[in-house]
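Backbone shape codes:
===
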Amino acid sequence: MAEQDFDEDVIAFPDENEELTTMVTNDDALSTTSSAKPATAAEDAPVLSDNTDDSEEEESPPTPVRPAEPAALSDNTDDSEAEDAPAMPVRSAEPAILSDNTDDSDDDDKPAPRKPRRVSTMAVSQGDRATPTALPELAVHYYEDAEAFGEDVRSFLQEKPYRHSTILTILHALTDYDELPSQAFLCCVTSRDRVVAVVVQYEVWHGVRVALDENLSLDEGVDAFHVACDEMKKRHLYINRAEGLLRDAQIFSGAALETRLAKGSYPLDQQQHYRLGEDGISPPTVLIPGELRTATNEDVIKLLPDYYAENVSFFEGEERTMEQCKASLEHFADERMLLTYRYKGHDMAVLTFREVTGKIAQVTGQFTMSCYRNRGFGPALLYEAVEHLLNERGYEDVIVAASSGDEATNSVYWKLGFEPSEIMATYGIDCS
């Protein structure tokens, strides 16, 4: 990833009446405007059901007690009342509704009690803040169950898949693991029982992925991320960077400072996302003959040294271990999301991807083996991979991304027929 110079001053919230600026450096080549038509939050945002008993509806929910250890989370159900729990509502095409933290099926048929859908739900009253909240009936929901979390936030994210693609890709991956890491954090914020913000971290080196309802004002976005940051502080969560749409990442980094979750924040990188144009993928000028293949676990050991060298450091001061890279590569191989371009019996280039929705895939990483670079294998692999995803995997669109300062990669995407989509940003978060 090409190094970029950024101003390391502490990030402050932009003025609400002042247009947000971007850090794109490629003159006019990467300038972009969103073509998505804004939708009203009342019509499109997923609806969250009440997580309280009707008999206690008039009482304010108690503030949850901070656990002695972050991982020691209490169950949110009462076994003595399991038989009286309301049935889980059937999901429909309407905005998603969160069911209660109980299951009305026969307990005798289960070898172990079911995990609660939400470990905790805390309503944020006006008295909890020095100034009134801009969002009414604000509540923060924390999860231990990745599957339940995905069910509750997926429809909100899929309404704008190109805006929230980075969270949707990790959402699919979360359910593939038997146990979440100790520093995992799954959280959504609601206003009047509707999702307005999502904050996700799988592992520290993944970074925190953040998303806001696009219809929120600046003050409303600040409030939503404030309560999420307060929840992260309560659980002693360590983070080192935040990723999301440019505006969302800026607001979150400011909220982390204001809530004292972080001591400082600074821009690390900015990425231009692309999607396929109307004419689809175009072949590169020189298409080197070769074979696209889906790699298996048997290929991991051969690919690992170059994969590790490419991924050992995302940004200065952040390193991944060889074991982490190996586990990542094996996961892509298990999911058949690891592709290579083979020429004369050797794998020249490697590409990984994830599913955003059933119709959209996103390339999450691509590199050419160090001894075969600058020979056209990278563009050849990307072209063949996109053709494969469209024609054999059933996807209708593919998202790719490049650092805004990487002129060579951005140029390749333009030549292959990709068009600018969203501008994403990464902010470093200092929690030391």
Remarks:
- The chain has nine helices and 13 strands.
- Residues 47 and 351 are 37 Å apart (CA to CA).
- Residues 1-97, 99-108, 110-115 have pLDDT under 50 and may be disordered.
- The two ends are 25 Å apart (CA to CA).
